[in-house]
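# nightly structure sweep
# worker-07 picked up a monomer target from the shared queue
# config: single-sequence mode, recycle default, output format = structure tokens
# input follows
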Amino acid sequence: MTPTEIRNAVCTLRAKGHSLREISRSLAMSRNTVRRILRQPHRTVDEAAPCDEATLARVKAAFERTRGNVVRVQELLADDGLEVHYSTLTRWVREAGLRRPPRRAGEYDFAPGQEMQHDTSPHRVVFAKAGTPDKIVTAQCAGLVLAYSRRLFMQYYPRFTRFEAKAFLLEAVRFMHGVCPVCVIDNTSVLLAAGSGADAVIAPEMLAFARTLGFRFRAHRVGHPDRKGRIERPFAYIEGNFLAARSFVDFDDLNRQALAWCRDVANQKPKRVLGMSPEAAYLIEKPHLRPLPDALPPVYDLLERVVDLHGYVSVETNRYSVPERFIGQSVAVYKLPAEIHVCRKDGTIAVHRRLIGERDARSTLPDHHSIPARHNRGTEREEALLRGHHPSLDRYVAAFKQRSNGWGRRALRRLIGMKRTYPSGPFIAAIEQALQYGLFDLGRLEALILKHVAGDFFALDAGENGDA
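# output follows
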């Protein structure tokens, strides 16, 4: 906005007959600005519309109703019949002290190797596999940055507990090849046991883990996220650059691409505040970092499990196979960041790739669960008991097998029972008659056998029947 004194000078020079070029040269401004000033109605500061007490009371009431939204205040006043320009309304709000002026932001300066900062942020990630629709999940992005060089390291996790925090910090300090003595964090319960800010109590396991690596945690006071602004700002950059128009197969693929992006993009891009890239500034900071210990602390969770009747142990809703001989026995399960180790009596009996970001999934090693052999002998034994006794019976068995559903073992065994139960003569006679008429219903065949048996063994002459 042009100051009132300059506006008055432009109008005065124009009134004295000076041209636009002369005015622009004398006041060091463009001719377009001079034209815009002359097109606007001229008024001085004293001519600004004052705000009387009644109007100010209406503005204050609307300001409270809209919770400080001046645009809505203007709309509410317009509904009540008071038309006020937005610039005038904002001036009234400032003069009445209804809105606090923004505080001047400070700046933090860090020496090389002085501090590193850690934080997490939820991001929406797209997982896409061939043959399946895209799946959007909320993943936790964990980041760590060196405060001086702004060198960034990040990874993604389906959730972020103390186990994931230790796994991430271990990978981060390996990536940095050293640590700073202080790591600034927020007041998350993942790392804190109680308190906040200067009174924060670090969880004992996280305190011991950090001490082993050579640094300590420091929580900033509540509501002061600017204290770790070095790590706050990159999260928006990650969402707008790394995740934009990218999809991933699984968490392993996501973290591989995230690591490559940190190395090739984020840490190679020159920053105006540094005058160089973070990777170049890291070369200055690296000699000031504390070296890592010779033996890094392992990250694992020890779980006690009993092998179920199906030969699996359950970890985080997923199931991992164990050799069948350990069914019903207690085993020790070591959950590592990338693997699952199943041990018993100081010996490892199974090693699986950890299923990350999956639920109710199953991992089965090929040599753990043998598939029971199905002893389908066919009908060789049954056919051997029927064949070789009579040519008619051989032909009937061959034709009967062709017309049977499946193996036909049960039907052949029933035919064997008929052969063993009834006399050979009536049985063969019934078989020949069944072949003649194409009869393969065993119920009707048995009725036919009984008819022949009755004719051979119970035939009585007519006289005897009459005497009876």
